Amino acid sequence: MDDRTTSYDRVHYPSAVYRTTTPEHLAAIARLHGLDAADPRSARVLEIAGGDGLNVLAMAAAYPGAQFVSFDLAASAVAHGQALIASAGLANVRIETTDILEAAGSMEGPFDYVIAHGLYAWVPPHVQQATLALIDRVLSPQGIVFISYNALPGGHLRMALRDMLLFELEGVNDPEARIDRAIEVLNAFGQPRDDDSVSQAALRRAARLTVGKDRHTLFHDELGPVYDPKALQTVAEEAAAHNLAYLTEAQPGGLFHGFPGEQVDDRETVRRAQRRDNDEVCFFHQSLFVRPERHPARVPDPAWLGTLLAGVPDSLRRTSESEFTSSAGSFQLDDPVLADFLEKLVRIAPARFPLADLAASEDHAAAILELINQGIIEPHSLPFPGALLPGERPVVSALVRALLAHEVPNLVTMDHRVVHLTDDAPRRLMALMDGTRTAAEIAADARRMGLSSEIDVNLGLQQLARVGMLALSPDS
């Protein structure tokens, strides 16, 4: 069905990478529940409705021994992804134009990791069921599934906003005009009033959050033809009908959904997780599923935690003996051992450090799990896949060089982060880093191009290593 034109062909959905979808992260979450998972370095990974596939392209660049497949119905997005593959020469990934309805009855597996991000709540019920049927068809016995969706009860606020927007947009058909009008409505409605009721204040806050989204994301997410938020319990029941059992959540804030505190069955785990959602008025989920015969542990075990490595968000900084700050705000950590450990993680980043010693203490293990749940510590199943130092012949990944050649402003690090870079000089400098030049030769070429001095190049190389942009050399 390559000749179909979709709304995603008419209005491009922004390319992005999603850290919580990486097999390396999913394997770490599984291990916390006592489950083995396929080694991400050699796994087979499928992304459903992956757009241009940048999410799996970044994974493929980091783990050349694994195999990746992504498909989407939007032919223009797929073509962009295929052009990036050709430019980068990535041999371990392919992107195809395929309909989920067709794939559900024909695609061959098995896949160790299956990702369905940003799909489930935006397609009609028969496509939701086809998605689950496809996953059931191709998932390996030890496979892990990632499904994200707008959730209830928080989704009721978004549905109210959507109804308001669709009313105001009646008769406005041009996509850009629809976006402009939606932003205008959200800005006007989102302004707080002194006499607001609790419900009005909540809805206005939701409007302010929504208007901050990328305009093309807003077009597809809030103004699309289908918007079907679901309760976690409903999604778990639908998944169970396709031989999938709920594991937990992939995102910070959801870790304890899979740890009810005692070894209960899957149904009771979901019920308790739904109670958490109801209490927190949850509106978005990144739910993980496994085969029902896996029987994950529902009580944390420090021994499993101790097998993992720890990293931190790139925004984390220590500001005093007990205080830290990040993009989420400031917090205090009164335990000096944990505080020093966090500082060490900040200092060595993007490297990761084993949790074995800290996890040996039951109290520290419990504290680490809470820090993971808050997004302050990131659990990892593998070391950082890139270069921690520039090395003799510094190199950025072939994917980064392809993104530079295609003039894409958002570049991707080796650990699946986005670096937004529009300045011409560093972009031209990185284009030289293909592993064939020494640092001195890069500096000489940069001078010939009028970019910088040798000292600036050396400093730039250090900065690129610090943000996780440098790849391992081909012979390492």
Task: Outline the fold blueprint.
Blueprint lengths: L6 H4 L12 H10 L11 E5 L5 H9 L4 E6 L2 H14 L4 E5 L2 H7 L4 E6 L8 H14 E14 L2 H14 L6 H15 L8 H14 L3 H7 L8 E2 H9 L4 E5 L16 H15 L3 E7 L11 H4 L3 E3 L5 E2 L4 E4 L2 E4 L3 H13 L4 E2 L1 H4 L2 H12 L4 E3 L17 H8 L4 E3 L5 E3 L3 H8 L7 H10 L5 H13 L10
Parallel strand pairs: 1-2, 1-4, 2-3, 4-5, 5-6
Antiparallel strand pairs: 5-8, 7-8, 9-13, 9-14, 10-11, 11-12, 15-16
Helix pairs in contact: 4-17, 5-6, 7-9, 8-9, 8-10, 17-18, 19-20
Report on the structure:
This protein has helices spanning 7-10, 23-32, 54-62, 75-88, 100-106, 125-138, 155-168, 175-189, 198-211, 215-221, 232-240, 266-280, 302-305, 336-348, 356-359, 362-373, 398-405, 424-431, 439-448, 454-466; strands spanning 44-48, 67-72, 93-97, 111-116, 139-152, 230-231, 245-249, 284-290, 309-311, 317-318, 323-326, 329-332, 353-354, 378-380, 410-412, 418-420. Strands 1, 2, 3, 4, 5, 6, 7 and 8 form an eight-stranded mixed beta sheet that branches. It has a three-stranded antiparallel beta sheet with strand order 13-9-14. The chain folds into four domains: 7-153 and 229-294, Vaccinia Virus protein VP39 (Rossmann fold), CATH 3.40.50.150; 155-221, no CATH class; 302-380; 398-466. The longest helix is centred in the middle third of the chain and has 15 residues, at 175-189. The protein is an alpha/beta fold.
